Structure of DUF934 domain-containing protein:
Amino acid sequence: MPIIKNQRILENTWTFVEDDAPLPAGDITVSAKRWTEDKAALLQHTGKLGVRLAPADNVAALGDDLPVIKLIELNFPAFNDGRTFSQARLLRSRYGYQGEIRAIGNYMTDQVFYLHRVGVDSFEFNNPKDMALALSAIKDFTIRYQASTR
């Protein structure tokens, strides 16, 4: 499925691996729980590593591991849960995370501009038809009153 990354539509090269599934070859993301429990084995994986965070997951728990984590997926189980915005902001501002932060799950294209402002730089959509709207939403406003990570 395609994604938006750096304001372009690209093919997604990452695979999310469920907690009980074997690790495939290539670039993978795992849950925060699996990262914590299987970190030693995951660090032996030959592809790039990423972590998928749920809104209740603690960003601080990844602190020392951030240099080896190349992608953090922020999962929106519902569009009205704002904790994911805070996770993105903390990753960029407090922890200085330089890797890719991707929004996944149930968020609206109207939220893309604000997600981009707090540090999200790629977007995966459940409905590919939303991609064109999201690309334009990143540039919705030209005047900004608040500071941001972008």
